[in-house]
Amino acid sequence: MCRQNFSCVLLLFSTVILILISCKQASPEQDEPKALAEESSSMSIKRMYDIDLTENLYVEIAEKTPELKQLEEQIEKLRKAQEDSTKVFAAYIKKNELYYSSARQHMESIRDSVLKQKTRKLIESSQEKYRLNISRQQELLKTVMQKMNALNDLNESLKINKTIPLIEKYQKEKKPSVKAIEGFSKQLDQVLKLQDSLTKKHEAAMPR
Questions:
Q1: How many Cβ atoms from other residues are within 10 Å of residue 17's Cβ?
Q2: Which residues form a coiled coil (predicted)?
Q3: pTM of whole model > 0.85?
Q4: What is the rounded distance in angstroms from the CA atom of residue 199 to the CA atom of residue 47?
């Protein structure tokens, strides 16, 4: 029942995320995001690359959007619940794997070939029963992982869908003027011209 509820919750949140992604809401007027503030222009290029700008922008949006904030809180709870619900089973599997691995090592130390073969069959038979016994749990675990992966994929897509309008707004409103670059280019031309003139004068004065 617990696993069924978990799967239902995963399906519910996947549906909610799909709705949020496809929803073409008009973006409310808001202050410039802190992640895109002018101070960021003074950062080094390396520091800029170290920043997850998509995540930072999305966090700002989620903090101001109740349904997104609630969604992220519930997804975080799901991730914690996934960890709690699977770690016991993971430990159970690990112990069984460790046992059969060590049992094989002991079996390999048997010198009598007939007894060794009987012991090998005993281990294989026991391991086969164990695998059949946990097949249902393994299948459920696989299904849950697939659903969590789908949820994470949708969540990443949602972050991009919600932050693209912000970066496009930034591109439109904060596009730098070309005047500064044009002015620098003209200064560069003047210095290049002077450099060329001095170089030619120096070459002409050199003895032949």
A1: 22
A2: 61-88
A3: no
A4: 40
